[in-house]
Design goal:
Oligomer: heterotrimer
Strand order of the largest sheet of chain C: 8-9-10-1-11-19-12
CATH class of chain A: Mainly Alpha
Number of domains of chain A: 1
Structural class of chain C: alpha+beta
Number of strands of chain A: 0
Largest sheet of chain A: none
Chains: A mainly alpha, B mainly alpha, C alpha+beta
Radius of gyration of chain C: 24 Å
Strand content of chain A: under 5%
Largest interface: B-C, 50 and 50 residues
Number of helices of chain A: 12
CATH topology of chain A: MetI-like fold
Order of helices and strands of chain A: HHHHHHHHHHHH
CATH architecture of chain A: Orthogonal Bundle
Helix content of chain C: 25-40%
Strand content of chain C: 15-25%
CATH class of the largest domain in chain C: Alpha Beta
Number of strands of chain C: 21
Structural class of chain A: mainly alpha
CATH superfamily of chain A: MetI-like
Distance between the termini of chain A: 37 Å
Helix content of chain A: over 70%
Number of helices of chain C: 16
Chain lengths: ~300, ~325, ~550
C-alpha cells in the first residue's frame, strides 16, 4: 500500500497532434508488456462483467460439509472455509475489487482534475490554497489516512472507496495542474485567448484534452494500487463487508488456513497480484506509447 | 543555503497546523465516545459524565482545539485517554522502533534497488533486465501482509534462520537509551544485543522494503537509460572511455535525482506499510500505536502520532531537495 | 478479550444469601471438583516461563483496567482478600485467613494473614485494605485513579470499612448482598501497596506493586512485560524464576512461536489450528467447558420480532451443530438455554428447538410471512471467546436464515459503537454474548433477561424482553437462601424464556488455550484468567 502509483509514474510530456490516439494505439500494440497487461485487465474485466454467466456456482452459497476442499473437477480452485466455490468467489470478487479500483480512482480523478485545472488555470491565491492543501494531504501516509477515514466512519465498502479516492486526489491534482501550466503557455491557447474565447471554452476545448494523456496513464496505474489499498484495509477489518466477495477480504479471512489449505489463501493472492501487474504493464505501455520522445 | 533551509522549515508551520486541524475535525465527527471505551459497561452514567468532564471533552470543539494547539506550542501533546500517559512518552518509545525499521527497509531498498536498476540499464534488454524488472513488478504488486507471513513461514519457522517476531529476545539485557536498539547496543558495546536486534530486524525490514525496492529499481533503470541518451554521455563515449566509467562517473550521479525524489516520497508509504508489517511481526512501533488509538478514539494519541509522521515526511523531503544540489551542481538554493 | 461484559449490572435492593456457602471459610461446599491452589506443587523450581497473548495490557493497576489482557497481568502481581480456587469459581482464603458474617448479613469481618509484605517491603495490614477501598470509592481521595470501572459493582452496597485492629477489618453493608464475598476474589479488588501508590501517583499503572507471586520488573510496551518470582510469597514462591508476558497480535504467528519453542503458553488459537496442535507431540491443546453463552438477540419491541412465532422460527432455522463444528473446532456446546450447563440451575429438561427449515417456514407463514421477510442481522467486528470468528459466523447464520426465507442484511460496527447501539435498541437482531464471572445464574438471567435491565440507553437486556412472570421468579430467587429452591426457580424461568424465545441461543464456547508439554501444572481457569505461579518447567 502507499503512494505506489504516484511514485511509479514518471512525469509525462505529451503533445496532442492529429491522429495522435491512432498512433498511440499502434505503438501500444507493438509493446508485448502492454499487450499482456491489456489481456490480463481485459480478462478480469470481462469475467467481472459477465460474472453471473461464467461463474460455475453461486459465490455466497455455503456448504459446511464441503469446507476447504482442494482443487478438483467439481471445484476448480477448491472451496473456502464456508464451503463456497473459490473460483466463483474470485470471479465475483473481481467485480468488487475492480469496482473499488474504478470508483475510487474516478472519484480522485474528477475531484483532483477539477482542483488541478482551477489551480493551474487561475493561478494566484486559488492555486496557493489548493496546492498547499494537497501538500498537507500528501504529508499524511496514504495508508494511515485511509485507515483513519474508514476507522472513524465505520467499515464498509463505500467508506473504503471514499478513503482510497481521497488519498489519490492530490496525485491527480498535481498532474493536471502541471499539464495546465505547460499547455496554457502554448501558442494555440494564447491564440484562442486572443480570438476572445471564454475561459470555460479554453479550459474545455484546449487545456483539458491536452492533459488527458497523463491522466489516463495515472488512472491505469492508480486502479492497480487501489486494489492493493483495498486489500490492506481488509486486512485490518476495514474493507468490504460480509458476505460480499472481495479479494482482500478473501485473502485475509483464509490466511489462517495457509498451512492446511494453502489454495484458499493463495488463489485470491494471485488474483490480486495478477491484476495489479496487469494494470502496471498496461500503464507502463501507455506511458511509453504516449511519450513523444520515443517517436523518432 | 541557510536561508533556504530556514524558509522551508518555516513552511512546516502551516502544514503542521493544517494537519492538526484536519485530524481534529475528522476525529470529532464520530459519535463514539472514548470514555465509554475505557470505562467499560458497568460504570454508572454518573461516573461516565464525571470522567468526560475531567477530560474536558464537554467543552466546545473550537475551545478544545485552541487548548490543544496551545499545548503543542509548549511541546505538550497531552495525555493518552486510554493509558493516562503522556503522548510524548509513548512516542519516544514507539517512534524509534518504527524509524529503525523504516531506515533498515529503506537501506535495503536503496542498495538492492539501485544496484539492480544500474545493472539492468547497463545491460538493457538482457535476460537480467527482463527478469529483474518483472520481479520488481511482482514485488510491487504483492499484498505486503501476505508476503510477511510467507517469509516468516519459510525463513523463521521452517529454516529457523531468524526469529519469528518481536524486536529483541527477552533473554537479552539492553540498556535502552534512545530506544533505537541497534544504536543502544552500539553505545553500550552490547554485542549480544546488537546481533540479536539485527536478526530480529531482517524479516520485517525485507518485507517492508519490497515495494520501495521495486520502485527504486525501475526508476533507477529508466532514469539511467534517459541520461545515457544525452549528449554529454555520448561525448564521453566518443572520447573512447570504457562503458563502465561512463556509467559510473558521468551518468549515475545525474540519474540519481529522480531516484532520490522517489526515496523521499516513499517514506510516507513506508510508514503506512509499517502498520501492516508491525502487526504481523509483533513489532512495537508507532503504526500499531496509531491504529489502536483510532479504534479506541484516543484523540490525543492519534493527533500526536499523525503530527509527528507528517512533520517527518516534510523534513525528509526537505533533505531530498537539499541533496539535489549535491547531485547536480547546476542546482543552487539561495 | 474484554471484560466489559463479564459483570452484570446488578441494580437491586436486597439479596438473601446462600448461608452454607458463606459460613464455610474454605467454601468448598457444593463444589467437589474444586481444588485449592495450595494442592499444586512445583515439580521443579527455576527457569523462565513465557506466556503470549494478542494485545498489550492497557495498564497494570487492577483498580483501573477492564480488558482481559490486563487482567492476565495484574492477576499474577496482586492478591485479593479471597481467591478463586485453581479450577472453579468457588473461593478460598488468600490475604484473609478467615471471615465471618453477622446474623443480619450486613457486617462482614475478615481476619487478615499476618507477616505478608508488599513487593516494596512495606507490610500488608488492615490500614492497607481500608486505603484500597477508599482509593477506589472516594472520589475526592488524593490517589483516586482517573477511571474506575469496577468499584460500583464490586463494592455494591458497601457503606464503609473499619479497621478493628492491625489484622482485622470490618465491612459494613447497607443491604445484604450475596456476591460480596465472591467479588472480593475478583481482580478488580486486588490489594495495591499504599506506599507505592503514593510514590508513583499517576504512574502507578506502570509501576505495579502488590503482594502477589510475581514482582514487576519492566514493561516494554506492545512487546512484553517481565516479572520475577516473589520468593517471599506467602503461599510459597512461584515455580519459575521469571515470567514473561509477550504481546503477539497475529494468532498464526503466536502459534508459530510456540511451535519453535520460544513461547510456552498461548491464548487465542484459530480453530483451524486445533488439529495441528493435537497432532504435535510437543504441544497440548487445552479445552474446558466455558462459562459463556453466544446468542442472537431479537428486539422484541419492533416488528417482526415482536411476534413470538417469528422469534421461534429463527430458532428453528439455525443449525447449531454445524456452527460448532465449523467455527469452534468442534469443542463448543450447542446452546438451548441462556445459562451455560456449567452453572447450577441449568434447565436441562428444556427441549431444544431442533434444526428444521420446514417448521421455521410454517411458523413464518402463520405470522403472515409466507413469502419470507427482510431484516438485518448485526454482528460485532471483534472476536470474543463466545464468538471466535464473528464475520464467518455471521455469514453462516445469514445463509441459514436465507434457507428459511429470512433475508438478513449483515451490519457491523466497531465494538464500542456496537454495544452502545445495542443498549439503545437500535438493532432488529444482533449477535452478542456473555461471559459469567461469579458462577451465579442471577449473573446471566437477571442481568440479561429481566425487565429491570431493559431500560433504553443502558440496557443489558438487548432483546428488551419484559416478562412479568420471569421477573417474579428472578426476584424471588434473589431473596431465598436455599440453592436447591433457587435452582428450581431459575429452571422455571428458563422454560418461560424458552417458550417466548427472545433469544436464539447459539453456543457455549469452550475455553481454549495451548501450551508446550514442558509447562507442567498449567490450567486455564474457568473465568478465562491465567494464573501462572504454580506452573513449572520440566526442562
Amino acid at each position: 500500500m502507499g503512494n505506489h502509483a504516484a511514485s511509479l509514474a514518471r512525469p509525462v510530456e505529451i503533445r496532442i497532434a492529429p491522429g495522435f490516439y491512432a498512433d498511440t494505439w499502434r505503438r501500444l500494440r507493438r509493446s508485448p508488456g502492454a499487450m499482456v497487461g491489456l489481456a490480463i485487465v481485459g480478462l478480469f474485466g470481462t469475467l467481472a462483467v459477465l460474472a453471473p454467466l461464467v461463474a460455475p456456482a453461486n459465490p455466497i452459497t455455503q456448504d459446511l460439509n464441503a469446507r476447504l476442499l482442494p482443487p478438483s473437477w467439481g471445484h476448480w480452485l477448491g472451496t473456502d472455509d464456508l464451503g463456497r466455490d473459490l473460483l466463483s468467489r474470485i470471479i465475483y470478487g473481481g467485480r468488487t475489487s475492480l469496482t473499488v479500483g474504478v470508483v475510487s480512482i474516478s472519484l480522485a480523478l474528477v475531484v483532483g482534475a477539477l482542483l488541478g485545472l482551477l489551480a493551474g488555470f487561475y493561478r494566484g491565491w486559488a492555486d496557493s490554497v489548493t496546492m498547499r492543501t494537497m501538500d498537507i494531504m500528501l504529508a499524511f501516509p496514504a495508508t494511515l489516512l485511509a485507515i483513519f477515514i474508514v476507522g472513524i466512519r465505520g467499515p464498509s465498502l463505500n467508506n473504503a472507496m471514499l478513503a482510497i479516492g481521497v488519498i489519490n486526489i492530490p496525485i491527480f491534482a498535481r498532474i493536471v495542474r502541471g499539464s495546465v501550466l505547460r499547455v496554457r503557455q502554448e501558442d494555440f491557447v494564447e491564440g484562442a485567448r486572443a480570438l476572445g474565447a471564454s475561459q470555460i471554452r479554453i479550459l474545455g476545448r484546449h487545456v483539458l484534452p491536452n492533459a488527458l494523456a497523463p491522466i489516463i496513464v495515472q488512472a491505469t496505474l492508480g486502479i492497480g494500487s487501489a486494489v492493493l489499498e483495498a486489500a490492506g484495509l481488509s486486512f485490518l477489518g476495514l474493507g468490504a463487508q460480509a458476505p460480499t466477495p472481495e479479494w482482500g477480504t478473501m485473502l485475509t479471512n483464509t490466511r489462517e488456513f495457509l498451512r492446511d489449505a494453502p489454495w484458499a489463501a493463495t488463489f485470491p493472492g494471485i488474483a490480486i497480484l495478477l491484476t495489479v501487474v496487469g494494470f502496471n504493464l498496461l500503464g507502463d505501455g501507455l506511458r511509453d506509447a504516449l511519450d513523444p520522445r520515443l517517436r523518432q | 543555503m541557510a536561508r533556504y533551509v530556514g524558509r522551508r522549515l518555516l513552511e512546516l508551520v502551516p502544514v503542521a497546523f493544517g494537519v492538526l486541524l484536519v485530524v481534529f475535525i475528522i476525529s470529532h465527527l464520530t459519535p463514539a465516545d472514548p470514555v465509554l471505551v475505557i470505562l467499560g459497561e458497568h460504570a454508572s452514567p454518573a461516573t461516565v459524565e464525571r470522567l468526560r468532564a475531567e477530560l474536558r471533552l464537554n467543552d466546545p470543539l473550537p475551545v478544545q482545539f485552541v487548548r490543544y494547539v496551545g499545548g503543542v506550542l509548549h511541546g505538550d501533546l497531552g495525555r493518552s485517554i486510554k493509558q493516562n500517559e503522556r503522548v510524548t512518552v509513548q512516542l519516544a518509545t514507539r517512534f524509534p522502533a518504527t524509524f529503525e525499521l523504516t531506515i533498515a527497509a529503506m537501506l535495503i531498498a536503496s542498495a538492492v534497488g539501485i544496484l539492480t536498476g544500474v545493472v539492468a540499464a547497463a545491460r538493457q534488454n538482457s535476460w537480467f533486465d527482463a527478469v529483474s524488472m518483472f520481479a520488481a513488478l511482482v514485488g510491487f504488486s504483492m499484498p505486503i501482509f501476505w508476503l510477511g507471513i510467507m517469509l516468516i513461514l519459510l525463513f523463521a519457522w521452517y529454516l529457523g534462520w531468524v526469529p519469528i517476531s518481536g524486536r529483541l529476545d527477552y533473554t537479552i539485557e539492553l540498556t535502552r537509551l534512545t530506544n533505537f536498539y541497534l544504536l543502544d547496543a552500539l553505545l553500550t558495546r552490547n554485542w549480544a544485543a546488537l546481533g540479536n536486534a539485527a536478526r530480529h530486524l531482517i524479516l520485517p525490514a525485507v518485507t517492508l522494503s519490497t515495494v520501495p525496492l521495486a520502485i527504486i529499481a525501475r526508476m533507477t533503470r529508466s532514469s539511467l537509460l534517459e541520461v545515457l541518451r544525452q549528449d554529454y554521455v555520448r561525448t564521453a563515449r566518443a572520447k573512447g572511455l570504457a562503458e563502465r566509467i561512463v556509467v559510473m562517473r558521468h551518468a549515475l550521479k545525474n540519474a540519481f535525482i529522480p531516484v532520490v525524489t522517489v526515496i523521499g516520497l516513499n517514506v510516507g508509504s513506508l510508514l503506512g506499510g509499517a502498520i501492516l508489517t508491525e502487526t504481523i511481526f509483533a513489532w512495537p512501533g508507532m503504526g500499531r500505536l496509531v491504529v489502536d488509538a483510532i479504534f479506541a478514539r484516543d484523540y490525543p494519541v492519534v493527533q500526536g502520532t499523525v503530527l509527528v509522521i507528517a512533520l517527518l515526511f516534510v523534513v525528509v523531503n526537505l533533505l531530498v531537495d537539499l541533496s539535489y544540489a549535491y547531485l547536480d551542481p547546476r542546482i543552487r538554493y539561495g | 478479550m474484554n471484560l466489559n461484559q463479564r459483570v452484570a449490572r446488578l441494580a437491586w435492593p436486597v439479596i438473601i444469601v446462600v448461608v452454607s456457602f458463606m459460613l464455610a471459610p474454605t467454601a468448598s461446599v457444593g463444589a467437589p471438583m474444586s481444588s485449592s491452589w495450595d494442592a499444586k506443587a512445583c515439580g521443579r523450581v527455576g527457569g523462565t516461563l513465557v506466556f503470549a497473548q494478542g494485545d498489550d495490557p492497557d495498564g497494570l493497576d487492577p483498580h483501573e483496567v477492564t480488558d482481559g489482557f490486563s487482567v492476565n497481568n495484574v492477576s499474577n502481581v496482586f492478591d485479593t482478600l479471597v481467591r478463586f480456587t485453581a479450577d472453579s469459581t468457588q473461593v478460598e482464603p488468600s490475604l484473609a485467613e478467615s471471615w465471618t458474617v453477622s446474623a443480619d448479613n450486613l457486617v462482614w469481618t475478615f481476619k487478615l494473614r499476618k507477616g505478608v509484605k508488599f513487593h516494596d517491603g512495606t507490610p500488608f495490614n488492615a490500614e492497607a485494605v481500608k486505603f484500597n477501598f477508599e482509593r477506589q470509592t472516594v472520589e475526592k481521595h488524593p490517589y483516586h485513579p482517573r477511571a474506575v470501572g469496577y468499584a460500583d459493582f464490586t463494592f455494591q452496597n458497601v457503606k464503609s470499612v473499619d479497621v478493628v485492629d492491625e489484622y482485622t477489618v470490618r465491612w459494613n453493608l447497607s443491604a445484604p448482598y450475596a456476591p460480596f464475598i465472591t467479588n472480593q476474589a475478583m481482580f478488580a479488588t486486588g490489594i495495591v501497596s499504599p506506599t507505592a501508590v503514593k510514590q508513583y501517583g499517576q504512574d502507578f499503572f506502570k509501576h505495579p506493586v502488590g503482594t502477589g507471586p510475581f514482582k514487576f520488573v519492566e514493561w516494554i510496551q506492545k512487546d512484553h512485560v517481565t516479572y520475577e518470582a516473589n520468593r517471599d510469597y506467602f503461599a510459597g514462591r512461584p515455580c519459575v524464576d521469571r515470567l514473561i508476558i509477550r504481546t503477539i497480535p497475529d494468532n498464526t504467528v503466536r502459534l508459530l512461536e510456540m511451535e519453535r519453542g520460544t513461547v510456552h503458553i498461548i491464548i487465542g488459537v484459530n480453530p483451524p489450528d486445533y488439529d495441528r496442535i493435537r497432532r504435535n507431540a510437543e504441544l497440548v491443546l487445552f479445552t474446558g467447558a466455558g462459562l459463556n453463552t453466544g446468542y442472537v438477540s431479537m428486539n422484541t419491541e419492533v416488528a417482526p420480532f415482536s411476534d413470538r412465532r417469528v422469534r421461534q422460527a429463527i430458532n428453528y432455522a439455525i443449525d447449531r451443530s454445524s456452527l460448532v463444528n465449523a467455527f469452534y473446532g468442534g469443542v463448543g456446546i450447542p446452546a438451548k438455554n441462556p445459562l451455560p450447563p456449567t452453572i447450577w440451575g441449568y434447565a436441562d429438561k428444556v427441549q431444544a428447538y431442533e434444526y428444521s427449515v420446514d417448521k421455521a417456514k410454517k411458523l413464518l407463514a402463520e405470522a403472515g410471512f409466507a413469502n419470507g421477510l427482510t431484516t438485518e442481522l448485526w454482528w460485532p467486528n471483534r472476536a470474543r471467546p463466545y464468538l471466535t470468528q464473528p464475520q464467518k459466523i455471521a455469514e453462516a447464520l445469514q445463509a441459514q436464515l436465507g434457507l428459511a426465507g429470512i433475508q438478513a442484511k449483515l451490519v457491523t460496527y466497531d465494538w464500542g459503537t456496537y454495544l452502545s447501539k445495542l443498549r439503545n435498541g437500535e438493532d432488529p437482531m444482533a449477535i452478542i454474548g456473555w461471559i459469567g464471572d461469579n458462577g451465579d445464574p442471577d449473573n446471566f438471567l437477571y442481568a440479561l433477561l429481566d425487565k429491570d435491565n431493559a431500560v433504553r440507553g443502558k440496557a443489558q437486556n438487548y432483546a428488551f424482553y419484559k416478562s412479568d412472570a420471569v421477573h417474579r421468579l428472578l426476584i424471588q430467587a434473589q431473596r431465598v437462601g436455599d440453592q436447591a429452591t433457587r435452582a428450581q426457580l431459575y429452571e422455571q424461568a428458563q422454560e418461560i424464556i424458552h417458550r417466548d424465545a427472545p433469544w436464539a441461543p447459539l453456543v457455549h464456547a469452550s475455553r481454549v488455550s495451548a501450551y508446550r508439554k514442558d509447562a507442567q501444572n498449567y490450567l486455564y481457569h474457568p473465568l478465562e484468567i491465567t494464573w501462572l505461579h504454580r506452573v513449572w518447567l520440566s526442562k
